[in-house]
# Entry
Amino acid sequence: MSRVFNFSAGPAALPTEVLERAGEELLDWNGSGTSVMEMSHRGKDFMSIAAKAEADLRELMAIPDNYKVLFLQGGASSQFAMVPINLLGDKKTADYLLTGQWSKKAIAEAKRYCEVNIVADTSDSKFTTVPAEASLKFNPDAAYVHYTPNETIVGVEFPYIPDTGDVPLVADMSSTILSRPIDVSKFGIIYAGAQKNIGPAGLTIVIIRQDLIGKAKHNTPAMFDYKTHADTDSMYNTPPTYGWYLAGLVFEWLKQKGGLQGMAEINQKKAEKLYAAIEASDFYSSPVDKSCRSWMNVPFVLADSELDAKFLQEAAKQNLVTLKGHRSVGGMRASIYNAMPAEGIDALVDFMAAFEKSYA
Ligand SMILES: *Cc1c(COP(=O)(O)O)cnc(C)c1O
# Structure
């Protein structure tokens, strides 16, 4: 069996150790004689899996007790709607930072429910920058402030957490959650689709401060009300059980790797090595401003875009796959989430140098 180095932005690579363990447990979980996929979500076996996963996530992220952790479906894209539906209350406006394609989608969805106040807009730079911290002027009457700490498509990551005072800060952390320690208490809501840095697609994690639950209007569908899920420990209906289990295996793996501090050190080294290789040559370049380059998604372009197809073809021969940039940006993008080992970066950097030698 041979596994490639998979640089997909999402669904992304999972740690091989996690997949091996899932394989070992596939037909018979812990002597139960069944697969986790075949278990009742209300039975004691699955309840123990669910509780362990939540406890491990709480430990990894040091989630304070006044926050609920919800294991939902619908992807981060459902949160684009659930956030305004649940947080507006009697307010009519919300603040949004427009810094890339994902925040743009979140804004489009919020506009169905409220007046959206765009606090910052980096579209002039083609989303290759983030707003200066001092330039952000928030509306004190906003129901919440929403931003995207890591814009997956352009590879832009905020080097700071915006200070919104008493207004709850909502973050779409789909592509940066678990990549380093963060202070959860600075946020009202953190949400993430699982398929980048948590587990398989189909699971969405929402970390929400308890006082923000229970403000949805009475005609809100039960499935779109955080209170429904908070009151039932995410078991109002059938949760994405297998995704929840696999996420739990990833959390155990992260704990073995030294938790988020350990991951942060590895991730920083990986990213620095790749950016250094891009910087060192005139053949490759990064479109993103140095102050806000993502640790997780590293876009780069070749000086001669005619060589793009050749690059991808030759890379695939070296087992380096899914490096094609997003269709809206072009070039290449290496997504290097937690599951990408340092050897994958070494192999990519070596390949880039060899390709340059042959084709520059
Ligand atoms: C991938 C991604 C999304 C979309 O997630 P879905 O789970 O497919 O809805 C939203 N925001 C960010 C930052 C992403 O990276």
Observations:
- DSSP finds nine helices and 14 strands in the chain.
- The chain has a mean pLDDT of 97.
- The CA atoms of residues 122 and 279 lie 23 Å apart.
